[in-house]
Amino acid sequence: MATLRKPEEPPTLLEPRLNPYLIGHENAEREFLAAWDSGRLAHAWLLAGPRGIGKATLAFRMARHALAQGGNAAENDMFGAPPKPTSLAMSPEDPVFRRVASMGHADFRVVERPWSDSKQTKRKTVIGVDEVREIGGFLSMTPSEGGWRAIVIDAADEMNANAANAVLKVLEEPPDRALLFLVAHNADRLLPTIRSRCRKLDLRPLREQQVTSLLNRYSPEIPPKDVAALAVLGDGSVGRALELADEGGVALFRDLMALLGEVPKLNAGRLHSLSDQALRGDAFRTLSGLLGWWLARIVAAGARGMIDAMSEIVPGERTLARRLLAAAPPAAWAEVWDKIGHLARRTDAVNLDKKRSLMLMLWSIEQAVAKAPAAA
To answer: 3-state DSSP call for residue 47?
Structure first.
């Protein structure tokens, strides 16, 4: 159940079913409300976009709206209903909000990856058919409260083949007064037949100003300089920005830029010092992710002639970007980016030495500059 906080406490980032706050997706909300008011509501909605931008939070807002309204707008207007809502916002004190938050609403279900242990510390990697099987029985029943039934699948692209086929059967013969909300981080992984049976909402990454606003809202203790850096490093995802804040991502990125600033010859002491950090917790994933992301960022900006317009995350970043792009052609950096991604995946898959893997990634940048004709 949603809990109240003391007025002096800053808000915390809540999981989607508990979160009443959302910004950046007002157009998607209006599109859903317009469909609702028209009386021609799609039975399945696909909410697609990057992780951490609010897709699941929007799905819960849509589901709560349906559960609270009962009938459609045309039916309600016959009985003198209040004006049509222009937002999906709902007070956490609303009974429907509370029951959805506590998973106690009889006409609502959530499908997600199950826990892999009894202590609920880690989830399984996929949604299996057992998690989806309940949908059929749930949808075969008459709505307990005489209105709509709603199901949120978070995330649909994490379903295995059997689970996806089970959902497809539901979509092929949709029951009356039932809504399915499919959240997908990568909609292309879904079966084409599932995508074709859903009304798709493509949710864009948040703007830097929106990520900044959310960081200030949820983590006001972060220094302003770090907030500005995280707003860019999050790449449109407040979820990713908050993860990086927890992982010390800004400090790691500063160290990374300081080391790369020494190419074409990396300082051995700094190289070992930074690579040692890869052995701590999730630092390898953070560092390798930041490195690959940054290379893609500067190559894209360079291709568009937008280096000067690029937000500078830390001082000297633009200068370094210009120097690397001048030292080696785009094809060389594409090869380095591919190598970094391959090393990151292989290190995770077969538990390679994280320090050595990170050093190999950084050496690949050094070598790209050293081998380029411009560096001769």
So the answer is: strand
What are the helix (H) ranges across 176-328? Answer: 192-196, 208-218, 224-233, 238-246, 249-260, 268-277, 283-303, 317-327
Rounded Cα distance, 164 and 153, in Å: 11
Q: Which domains does the chain have, with CATH numbers?
A: 16-202 (3.40.50.300), 247-375 (1.20.272.10)
* Pair 310, 318: CB distance under 8 Å: yes
d(CA 258, CA 124): 38
**Cα 75 → chain centroid:** 36
DSSP-assigned letter for residue 245 = H
* DSSP annotation string for 118-129: TT---B-SSB-H
C-alpha to C-alpha distance for 248 and 53, rounded to whole angstroms: 20
Are 206 and 238 in contact, with CB atoms under 8 Å apart? yes
> Cα(315)–Cα(325) distance, rounded to whole angstroms?
18
- H helices of the chain, in order, are 26-38, 55-69, 73-77, 95-101, 129-140, 161-172, 192-196, 208-218, 224-233, 238-246, 249-260, 268-277, 283-303, 317-327, 330-350, 354-371
Q: Does pTM surpass 0.85?
A: yes
Residue 241 and residue 238: Cα distance in Å, rounded? Answer: 5
The interaxial angle of helices 268-277 and 283-303, nearest 10 deg, is: 120
Q: How open is the CA angle 281-287-292, to the nearest 5 degrees?
A: 145
pLDDT digits over 245-299, tens only?
A: 999 999 999 999 999 999 889 999 999 999 999 999 999 999 999 999 999 999 9
Nearest-angstrom CA–CA distance, 328 and 139:
58
Coil vs helix vs strand at 111: strand
Q: Are 215 and 184 in contact (CB under 8 A)?
A: no
- Give residue 244's pLDDT band: very low, low, confident or very high (50, 70, 90): very high
Both tokens assigned to 139: 């949808």
Contact 371, 319 (CB under 8 A): no
CB neighbour list of residue 96: distance below 8 Å, 6 or more residues apart: 64, 67, 68, 90, 105
* C-alpha torsion sign, points 362, 364, 365, 369: positive
The confidence score (pLDDT) of residue 137 equals 84
Residues 125, 85: contact at Cβ < 8 Å?
no
